[in-house]
Amino acid sequence: CLFPNAPGNRLGAMPKRVVISHFYNEAYMLPWWLRHHREIFDHGVLIDYHFTDASVDICRELVPGWEVVSSENATFAALLCDFEVMKHEQRFPDAWKLVLNTTEFFVAPGLAKMERVMLQHDLIGARLPGAVMVDTDPDNPPDPAVSLVAQKSTGIWEDEIDFKGLAIPGLTFPTRNRLYHRYAIGAYTPGRHSSHLPRQGNASRDMGSIRWYGFSPWSTAFKARKLQIGSKRDSFDIKNGFGAQHQADIAELDGRWSKLAALSGVLPIAA
Question: Which of 112, 115, 128, 271 is nearest to 209 (CA)?
Fold first, then answer.
């Protein structure tokens, strides 16, 4: 489907809020992710990294008015991925924008207030606090038809993590403080963990946050999706250390989960 005349664009014109995401074989997580974010955003651009499962069919069923586009990149290269998402951001110059992974859920009980505050203070964007979600009850699998955020709510706020003490690859600093912004592009550093844009504010948890389901739900299907990512890394990324956290076997993943599960607690929607 191509915007702006697609069914599902609730405004019927240029959207107020746009989410952009990229995926590869995410049939397990996408139903939760799409149902959650279609309630927040007017439009979405979903970049397919050449799926081989039912991912695209799920997107077309659950968000028929959103765009599903094939990535211009054959492999997952961090810098090229960021460049690609910014090209799509530029198509919506007047919209509020957020770029997310399929494991990142935007929880925003105070979103309208956050937008008003940014406009009042002439801020271009807000950095959203992030939390690492960790399944402390893996024997209780979540219902695919019920909100994942409601079912699996245990984790750790990133600003409360001792990253050095944990010594987990890829968890060396807060990485989930994504930027919710209104500029043409996000002007991101590699991995979109920060931005060069001026006039950024810090959002409070009660306004909006990112729940990163990096270790939740801790099921066989979820572990399988984590293990597949390493094979899609670009040779440039491997040589230069981008995405090193994706090179892990099942024993390494279980070890990381175990460390984090011991530190996790329930994270309320507004905390």
Answer: 128
Angle at Cα 223 formed by Cα 63 and Cα 133, nearest 5°? Answer: 70
Say if residue 158's pLDDT is above 90: yes
Whether this prediction's pTM lies above 0.85 is answered by: yes
pLDDT per residue as tens digits for the range 239-265:
655 555 555 678 889 999 999 999 999
Residue-by-residue DSSP string for 103-163: TEEEE-TTHHHHHHHHHHTT-SEEEPPEEEEE-S-TTSPPPTTS-HHHH--EEEEGGG--H
* 36-61 residue pLDDT tens: 999 999 999 999 988 899 999 999 99
Radius of gyration of the chain (CA): 18
- Start-to-end Cα distance in the chain: 38
Cβ atoms 172, 161 nearer than 8 A: no
Beta bridge partners of 131: 157, 211
> What SS3 class is residue 260?
helix
Distance CA(220)–CA(157), nearest Å, equals: 25
